[in-house]
Design brief:
Helix content is 19%, strand content 11%. It has helices at 33-37, 43-51, and strands spanning 13-14, 19-21, 29-31. The chain has a three-stranded antiparallel beta sheet with strand order 1-2-3. The longest helix is centred in the middle third of the chain and has 9 residues, at 43-51.
Length: 75
């Protein structure tokens, strides 16, 4: 990757285990399955997740520990 597009990225992914992943190259995830099963509205959880979305990923700095393969998150 020679150029990052993090500043304009709007990509998120809902994993197969009910977590909202806010960066495809990061490890920040928010559990949506638990509130959904409890009957809570999901909007506050999604809004919080988007507000906490990282400003940039760490691929260029070679800090990628803990990443799940995209095939593991439904990609």
């Amino acid at each position: 990757m020679t150029h990052t597009y993090c500043g304009s990225c709007n990509r998120v992914r809902l994993t197969a285990d009910g977590r909202l992943r806010t960066c495809l190259f990061g490890d920040h995830e928010v559990d949506l399955r638990t509130p959904l099963r409890s009957g809570l509205p999901l909007e506050p959880f999604v809004r919080r997740a988007l507000a906490e979305k990282p400003q940039e990923h760490a691929l260029l700095a070679r800090r990628v520990g803990g990443l799940r393969a995209l095939s593991q998150v439904g990609g």
